[in-house]
């Protein structure tokens, strides 16, 4: 499955459009991870645990979107947009959503 942020795939004309497909993942933040992330923020550096959670959520959202495209008969998703949002009463959850257009190249 080809997944791209561009509206077309060079050298591969779109034969059929199937419509918009999406993938969403919401992950909760762990109290201990929050504590260690705040320590990292104070002393500087990157928060490895948050980066791992973010990478996993993004991967799962893209996989969900690809699966939806495949069910429609697509072999590619073009015009992909990925969004990140902090949600929940105290901002304790992270949502990663992606959308694009399922097509047959």
TrEMBL record:
Transmembrane segments: none annotated. It holds the Pfam family YbjQ_1. Coiled coil: none annotated. Belongs to the UPF0145 family. This is UPF0145 protein ABVV53_01950.
């Amino acid at each position: 499955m080809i997944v791209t942020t561009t509206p077309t795939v060079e050298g591969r004309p779109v034969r059929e459009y199937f419509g918009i497909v999406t993938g969403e993942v919401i992950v909760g933040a762990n109290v201990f991870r929050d504590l260690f992330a705040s320590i990292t923020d104070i002393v500087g550096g990157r928060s490895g645990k948050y980066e791992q959670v973010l990478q996993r959520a993004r991967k799962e959202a893209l996989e969900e979107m690809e699966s939806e495209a495949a069910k429609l008969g697509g072999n590619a998703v073009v015009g992909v947009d990925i969004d990140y949002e902090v949600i929940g009463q105290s901002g304790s959850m992270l949502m990663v959503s992606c959308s694009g257009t399922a097509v047959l190249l």
